[in-house]
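Morning F.,

Quick status update on the modeling queue. The single chain you submitted on Monday has been processed. Sequence for confirmation:
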Amino acid sequence: MTLFKYATTLLVAMMLALPVLALSLDEAKNRLESAKSEGQVGEMPTGYLGVVSGGGDAEAIAEAINEARRAEYARIAEKHNIPVTQVEAVAGKKAMEKTPSGQYIQANGRWVRK
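Structure tokens below.
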């Protein structure tokens, strides 16, 4: 097989595998607490989840949850005629306050165990 054919075949295979890596919102919600407890994801002051240590489905969970949060923050911002950044900041503060001891939050750009 020529290098071009090999590269094309590999690219097509990777593109077909990408949807498998994505999680539905329901799947992400079901896996979120264990991912937080295992230290894979944590809350950030921006109102979104961040990946603390890769592993498992950490990135897919954060991506699915953050996509839903982004949409909800935009809806709230539009409803109240305020900047999305304001909604994100309030949501981030609340999420970090509600985070139980032993789980990760981001403080001053660093992940710390609460």
